[in-house]
């Protein structure tokens, strides 16, 4: 009995379901696992043709499928077929959205293919560290000026998504990777969707405790979600980086709000005006948040100018519109 219990949990574990090191998809050879979650595994691989590293994301919902010895996937039970297909559809959408954008801070789409009864997306491998790990390993790096320099690039990436009518919907510390050249990459377009797109009843909504605003838990009505939805999650990222934890869960806040404004907490090294902007990003009421990245950029402009040492006249267009 104990044995089958262990087997049950072990073979649900995504690591044990991963493809072996050395496995090849034509010119791509898997070198190691770099990420794993409930819906997939991310591998670092070597591109023997172009002589460079790539990241390969495999769709593998570990609660739904199990890897066979021939490395193909089997449904854990035939009734899960629909769930697998819905997830696969979202995975294909991720590839499609990625292929649509060409921005230095969004992952660059290289290839999508189907194999092993599942699907794969290849992007360049970005050398760096996620904000989650950076906060753990190098917390001293995080200062107001450093955050402003990261925001300067992230605003542009997010604005590009928003202007094309998309929302990221899963901004978090492990979906922002700081490259060795300090340029951030906004990873994981797996939850991204068109602002106007309605979720079907079967589709799963991504929620991340502390990062997801109220409207994302419930919304299917047009107009409820918008750039302000990503702005809340970005505010939660900044809050976590500054005080060590995300704000209280938004749904709980909407019943009784115990959020302590950063302007009251006054963490050292941060200006009140910068903290005030983050408090606004984290407003529970949508109408109290900056409605767009350009409005947000305008609010934070003085801190950005100081951190990036850019004369006002040289700021990108985004900062000229407010
Ligand atoms: N192109 C890349 N270069 C370097 N590291 C990457 C890359 N893509 C992903 N990673 C690493 O793998 C982790 C997981 O990637 P990603 O966020 O895309 O997948 P996921 O969270 O498992 O996906 P999902 O939330 O859609 O299930 C990231 O946090 C990052 O550490
Ligand atoms: Mg992720």
From TrEMBL:
Pfam families: Pkinase
Statement: the UniProt record of this protein carries the keyword ATP-binding: yes
InterPro entries tied to this protein: Kinase-like_dom_sf (IPR011009), NEK_Ser/Thr_kinase (IPR050660), Prot_kinase_dom (IPR000719), Protein_kinase_ATP_BS (IPR017441), Tyr_kinase_AS (IPR008266)
Top-level class of the enzyme under EC nomenclature: transferase
Keywords: ATP-binding, Kinase, Nucleotide-binding, Serine/threonine-protein kinase, Transferase
Annotated positions binding ATP: 57
Gene3D superfamilies assigned to the protein according to its UniProt record, in alphabetical order: Transferase(Phosphotransferase) domain 1
Chain ranges of the Protein kinase domain: 28-304
EC number in record: 2.7.11.1
One GO molecular-function entry: ATP binding
PROSITE patterns: PROTEIN_KINASE_ATP, PROTEIN_KINASE_DOM, PROTEIN_KINASE_TYR
UniProt cross-references to CDD domains, sorted A to Z: STKc_PknB_like (cd14014)
Catalyzed reaction equations: L-seryl-[protein] + ATP = O-phospho-L-seryl-[protein] + ADP + H(+); L-threonyl-[protein] + ATP = O-phospho-L-threonyl-[protein] + ADP + H(+)
Keyword Kinase in record: yes
Coiled coil feature spans: none
Family stated for the protein in its record: Belongs to the protein kinase superfamily. NEK Ser/Thr protein kinase family. NIMA subfamily.
Protein name: non-specific serine/threonine protein kinase
